[in-house]
Amino acid sequence: MTNSQTNLAWDVLLDLSGPGPRHERLTRALRTVIREGTLGSGAALPPSRTLAADLGFSRWVITQAYEQLIAEGYLAARTGSATVVRWSAPGGEAAKPVPRTAAPPEIDLMPGLPDLRHFPRQRWAEAVREVLANAPHGEFGYPVPGGHPRLRAVLADYLRRCRGAVVDDVRISSGVTDGFGRVCRALLAAGITRVAAEEPGWQTLRRVATRAGLDVVGVPVDEDGLRVDEIPSGARAVLVTPAHQFPTGTVLSPARRAGLLSWARDVDGLIIEDDYDAEFRYDRRPVGTVQGMDPARVALLGSVSKTLSPALGLGWYALPPQWTDLVEPSPTPPALEQLAFATFLERGSYDRHLRAARRRYRARRDALVDALGPLPVSGVAAGLHLVLDLPGGSAAEVVRRAAIKGVRVTDLDDYRATPRAPGLVLGYGNLADNSVGTAARLLIEAIGEASRTRS
After folding, report:
1. In whole angstroms, what is the distance from residue 330 CA to residue 181 CA?
2. Where is the HTH gntR-type domain (predicted)?
């Protein structure tokens, strides 16, 4: 183990009780934590002067304990460097086994991730540095409920300008899941117990609604999006991804948009719009939000998880006025992260990042479709995934055989309440460009093997 600030043994609790002089008790205590594995091989101990001050002992007590443990082989000391733990448990470097994690697949075609290789590190770091250099001291306190006022104002302007939303205020969350969960709890408190959701759809959000105590009913999706005429009676809320439906990739047609808004007015209901993949449309400009057509009937949810990185934990939601006081504000991300994103937006860095990402994803999608050859794919030219139909095949068997070849893909049935025609969901957002051909070739081989097995 190399010496680093992460393995300095400065804060280990030592049991200094028992008989004997202080240097013997300290020797015993240090020997115990080393043998138990609390201090692993390579952990750096504090300088004798520092530990003496911390324990209220003389420096002689510390040096005597260190010298004794060095003589016994538990510690090692070098001139000019820290005293470190030398001993390790028999049969390994540490007494406690380190849990192993599964190795990632060589090629990951799971949906839901942007291109992490192209996260705008330099521009984001510049935004963080500017905040750290210029933020008033008060900004280092507890985050403001609902989000920092500066980010809320900047984000509202962005949503009006780029997404066609009609928002006077927007609240900050840790992501779409967080915002949706809060809306679900408000629905239940308002006496709405049934919510409709697209079928197929993102199962995570369905589980959130169920945990909130709501009854979730699926509504079929076709080439025009959600079948509004099949929303069941009793439902007064519906979850939709109109800009780019997940996972089918369809876009809610103008007629269906109008029908959905008419439904919401008729039942005095709420449309919950997940603005999923809205920024990435490759055959035309992205369509605007449904929320912009009737902000009194639509709650708009969004995040940077698919545009920048889910690691940032930044999302937002805009509510109709009558729902604002019913939805409890989220515990927000750290204020410094919020201010960095506000700076990132104000500088135009977010817009530039999205323009570059659109070009990159379009080229990658085209390359993947070409490499798949005659295999049937569906969904409009948008987003970070496509659907591959498997007529007459077994998607589960293809997934299994692809995994053996080091390719991770998703069964379309994972997003359905009821299994139907077999298919795969292929995410290409985080796929390396030089892996596109290999991914397609191995997937085609897996499909062929699964087909022969079935025959």
Report:
1. 10
2. 20-88
- Look at strands 215-222 and 194-199 and give their pairing: parallel
Q: Is 102 within the bounds of a domain? A: no
Nearest in space to 196 (alpha carbons), one of 176, 180, 212, 214: 214
Q: Concatenated DSSP letters for 99-149? A: PP-PPPPSEE--SS---GGG--HHHHHHHHHHHHHHS-GGGGSPPPTT--H
Q: How many residues does the chain have?
A: 455
For residue 295, whether the previous peptide bond is cis, meaning omega lies within 30 degrees of 0, is no
Instruction: Give the span between the Cα atoms of 268 and 266, in whole angstroms.
Output: 6
Residue 316 and residue 250 share a domain:
yes
Burial of 78 (0-12, 13-18, 19+ CB in 10 A): exposed
> What torsion, rounded to 10 degrees, do the Cα atoms 166, 172, 174, 179 define?
-50
State which residues form the domain around 425. 353-453
Say if 127 falls within a structural domain. yes
Quick one: 345 exposed, middle or buried, by C-beta within 10 A (0-12, 13-18, 19+)? middle
Residue 80 has what DSSP assignment?
T
pLDDT tens by residue, 74-130: 999 877 778 999 887 665 444 444 455 545 568 999 998 999 999 999 999 999 999
pTM of this prediction exceeds 0.85: no
Residue 183: count of CB within 10 angstroms of its CB: 24
Clarify whether residues 208 and 222 are in a common domain: yes
CATH of the domain at 44: 1.10.10.10
**Can you tell me the distance from the alpha carbon of 344 to that of 446, in angstroms, rounded to the nearest whole number?**
43
Question: Could you read off the pLDDT of 313-337 as tens digits, one per residue?
Answer: 999 999 999 999 999 887 889 999 9
Longest Cα separation, the chain? 86
Q: Cβ-count burial of 265 within 10 angstroms (0-12 exposed, 13-18 middle, 19+ buried)?
A: exposed
Q: Hunting for tokens 């029908």 — which residue is that?
A: 259
